[in-house]
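Project standup — Tuesday

K.O.: blocked on the structure for the chain from last sprint. Re-posting the sequence here as requested.
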Amino acid sequence: MPLSGPAGMVKMPAKGLPTSMLMPPSIWFGRRILAGLLLGAFLLAACSPSNAPDADSAGRAAAPHGAATPDQAVTDLIAHLRRNALADVARTALPAPLHAQVEAAWRAGKSRWPLSELPFDESLPGLLKALTAEDAEHKLDTRFKQQLSGQTKALQDAARGLGLFGKQYLAREGHYNAQQRQHYVQLIDALSAWAQKAPLGDPARGKESIHLLVNGAQRTGLHGDEDLTRLGMDASLKALVPLYIATKQVFGLYGLGVDATFASVRAETVKIDGDRADVRVRYTLADKDIDTVMQAVRVDGRWYLANYLEDAAASLPAPDPAPASDAGPDAPAGR
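H.V.: unblocked you, prediction finished:
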């Protein structure tokens, strides 16, 4: 599942989008950007450019695995996101054994959870490469001017189309349960409405956005997937903080104050049945009220969001099959 609550939304396969042959290149390129805006809010956050990496992280004890109560399984993650503590999100979201397994899988190049919760997560290495390339800011600024600058109306129309497509996809996709569909439809409606009003083709905002993203990416020290493998999950998430912050600032430039969304989150445990619980989560996104229910599970006395556990476990490589035995203990003797 995408990051729960305001931290994420529906991940849709690119194969479901209309072919680029049906639209001009500039509009097709804009749709790709809008799909990321509408479907990729893991990187959403504060509209204030004063945000900085978690300054006291070096002197603070490591975040605990799990939460004390079901509702804190939601609010603790939101607190980490507000503090820009991405590595703490992964640590709190998983029990220690599973966290260690995902860390090992990162270093083997087999898992990229929690980045795999992002739409277009497979494009992240390419994005890092583009943003850290020589003269990246000039090249990307030129591309924006050629393809997107002044195209606000076309991009807003694309946002409307993506919103409709998103809801149609949810209606036919069997992977999501009824509660997830209800939640994701609310998210799509809120973000589609925002994007249809946002100045997406504004030249000044585009130039500033590129500057922020290039600067943020270069400060990560990451250039591609090989760096993610070399560093592992924990160190990679810490390294990605400058790009996370830059992306927060970019959304703020277009009027999406998601730090306010994080601050608006309210979680309430409404049902506990053994080691499972339902948590009602309410928040405001792009001036729209969102109301949903999430599932939490208890593992070794601590509470976790159920879908995070499932997705993290699913990201691990399949275990090597046990070697076949030529003859079991009860095999008949050869002649």
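K.O.: great, moving the ticket to review. Residues 1-53, 331-335 have pLDDT under 50 and may be disordered. The longest helix spans residues 152-172.
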